[in-house]
Amino acid sequence: MMKPFAHALALALALVAGTAAPVFAQGGPLRIDITQGVIEPMPIAVPQFVAETAGAQDMAAQLTRVIAADLVGTGLFREIPREAHISTISNFSAPVQYADWKAVNAQALVTGAVSTDASGRLIVKFRLHDVFSNGEMGEGLQFAGTTDGWRRMAHKVADQVYSRITGEGPYFDSRVVFVSEQGPKAQRQKRLAIMDYDGANVNYLTDSSSIVLAPRFSPTGDRVLYTSYESGFPRIYVMDVGSATRRPLADQPGTMSFAPRFGPDGNTVVYSVTEGGNTDLYSLNLASGQRGRLTSAPSIETAPSFSPDGSKIVFESDRSGSQQLYIMSASGGEPTRISFGDGRYGTPVWSPRGDMIAFTKQNKGRFHIGVMRVDGSEERLLTASFLDEGPTWSPNGRVIMFTRETQGENGAAALYSVDISGRNLKRVSIPAGGSDPAWSPLQR
Amino acid sequence: MKTLGTIAVLVAALGLSACSKTGADRFGADGGAGAGAGYGAGANGAYGDPSSPAYFQQAVGDRVLFLVDQSSLTATAQETLYKQAQWLLTNSDYKAVIEGHADEQGTREYNIALGARRATAVRDFLISQGVPATRLETVSYGKERPIAVCSSEDCYSQNRRAVTVISGSAFSS
Q: Residue ranges of the OmpA-like domain (chain B) (predicted)?
């Protein structure tokens, strides 16, 4: 159940000598500007990577599939089916016949090779080609790592392709911690789980003997904060992801604590404490154990989230009579309200780029995931359903994952993701139900 | 923790039946539906014994209901709590855990805070009637433990509740 698993995978990176003069991204035709609103996905060819050593055939096939799935999954690319290919890539070093790829209208072409070296390490090489410029886009790269880390290598390749073409930061080589849910609605069994961003490699971090809620990653992805009822009362725990060992945070007897989130220093934790009927925000220094009170209001203050520079906290409060979003200094003080639309606003999360806040909005019996500028302007709702809640940002700030729960006695929770443009809404494929996703930083 | 699991299963079964019936059996069939630690099925003593937790659940009434997003006590709730207080004062060996709950129409963490408000409103009322504070604990389950599972007001109204779970005389000394 709680078996530790390898998460630190040494990925060695090296340049691959080019076969054609690289073309420069700027000004070239191979470019997706996400902010301009993509109407037509870019046609891309991802022929199966060449197996350069005996026995690498299966690995090459799997790797290529994951790379293509990452790219197509963004909604920004359309894969040209293999049956339509005129050329086959059978030698990674041979010159590419660009005319053959132009003929099938591939704008981008990813070629690659897979081999294992004498010590059993997996080596993956790739090149990105700008077909209509007859050349490579950026340098070819080589990754080396252990065989069981093959999916990470595939994600690294896809991240390179995605970043070079969009100019956005990478995000495929990341993980998500979430609450796995099983059983009917009045008998829900919840366990903490972790997976690759695309739903693969699910591992369980706790058993289902007590309710667990809302896990959140540390800034380096090595630890997770979450809330568990294992003591009979909601209490915050910090878990080491590699070993699945956990310890409770210090709390005061007779109080409940929940809604924890790390600060960017990885040492400060902000969270809610309920004493009697009143819920306020506190901060805790993990190293020193020193605790500070950030709010002292008779209202509910919860769901705090730090700005990336650690100077401010966005949170929700019902001090105005309904749930609304506020920003205050990370040391407390007078908050400024930023949400003013119709309905109630909760679960604010600061984007990794620092420029936006994602939130849950409840209005006229419907739930929405939305984003707004840090000053509350330019509110945009990305989703609408019976119950959407709890957004989390991809490491590059382009995609939001959240919980969607269906209604009725057979209602179940699932994980969904959506681009911050509002496009590409899709369900994340996991073995059971899921809720409360939290996206990790990009893995190193 | 093992007993907690068993009780959770019981809650589920009872919750399903509660949804399909009218509210008439609120203090009857699902009377043992407290989600937390406390008496399991069969350990409550006889219903006919006025000093038993079973009597408290079924005859006195172990729960009060709340309006949407509210934690103030309705007149009906105060009537029930007045009877709870009388029972607790008479049966002074018992302690109680008051569990606050919310319906599913709200975000998870806010609902935990809201459930705490509801449980505390009940606790404060019982204290105002003379029940010693040391005999009363509160916990909130937010929207994590619904007893009625439909997605309409019929069920939501049953889930917006605070349940007084009698937790035994063992720790009275």
A: 53-170
Same domain, A117 and A218: no
pLDDT score at A416: 98
Q: Which residues in chain A have their CB less than 8 angstroms from residue B115's CB? A: none
Token representation of residue A412: 């179940």
**A272 contacts in chain B (CB < 8 Å):** 109, 113
Same domain for A157 and A184: no
Question: Could you tell me which of A315, A360, A359 has the C-alpha nearest to residue A333?
Answer: A315
Q: Determine how many CB atoms are found less than 10 A away from the CB of residue A21.
A: 9
Q: Are A395 and A170 in contact (CB under 8 A)?
A: yes
Range of the domain at A394: 176-439
Cα–Cα distances in angstroms (integers) from residue B161 to residues A83, B5, B12, B73, B121, in the given order: 61, 21, 16, 11, 11
Q: Supply φ then ψ for residue A328, to 5 degrees.
A: -140, 170
Q: Answer whether B149 sits within 8 Å of A411, measured CB to CB.
A: yes
The answer to whether residue B173 sits within a structural domain is no
Q: A277 and chain B: CB distance < 8 Å anywhere? A: yes
Q: Same domain, yes or no, for A200 and A347?
A: yes
Complex-level ipTM:
0.91
Asked if A232 reaches chain B (Cβ–Cβ under 8 Å), the answer is: yes
Structure confidence at residue B70 (pLDDT):
96
Residue from A288, A224, A276 nearest A252 by CA: A276
Nearest to A272 among B8, B109, B141 (CB): B109
A5 interface with B at CB cutoff 8 Å: no
Tokens 């806040």 found at? A357
CATH of the domain at B52: 3.30.1330.60
Helix, strand, coil percentages in chain A from 3-state DSSP, rounded to 5 = 10, 45, 45
What's the CA gap between A93 and A106, in Å, rounded?
A: 20
Report the C-alpha gap between A333 and A382 in whole angstroms: 32
**What DSSP designation does B61 have?**
I
What are A212-229's pLDDT values in tens digits? 999 999 999 999 999 999
Cβ contact A313:A330 at 8 Å:
yes
Question: Has residue B172 been placed in a domain?
Answer: no
CB pairs under 8 A between A and B: 119
Tell whether A432 and A382 lie within a shared domain. yes
User: To the nearest whole angstrom, how far is the Cα of B98 from the nearest Cα of chain A?
Assistant: 12
Taking CB atoms and an 8 Å limit, are A347 and B107 in contact across chains? yes
In chain B, the number of structural domains is: 1
CB contact under 8 A, B149 and A185: yes
CB contact under 8 A, B110 and A302: yes
Mean pLDDT value of segment A407-422: 95
Q: Specify the pLDDT at position B169.
A: 62
Instruction: Note whether B30 and B12 are within 8 A (CB).
Output: no
Residue of B nearest to A226 (CA): B109
Give the number of other Cβ atoms within 10 Å of residue A374's Cβ.
16
Would B124 be classed as within a structural domain? yes
CB atoms B151 and A274 under 8 Å: no
Beta bridge partners of A141: A15, A126
Interface test with B, best of A187, A190, A191 (most B CBs within 10 A): A187
Beta bridge partners of A43: A78
Q: Is B25 exposed, middle or buried (0-12, 13-18, 19+ CB in 10 A)?
A: middle
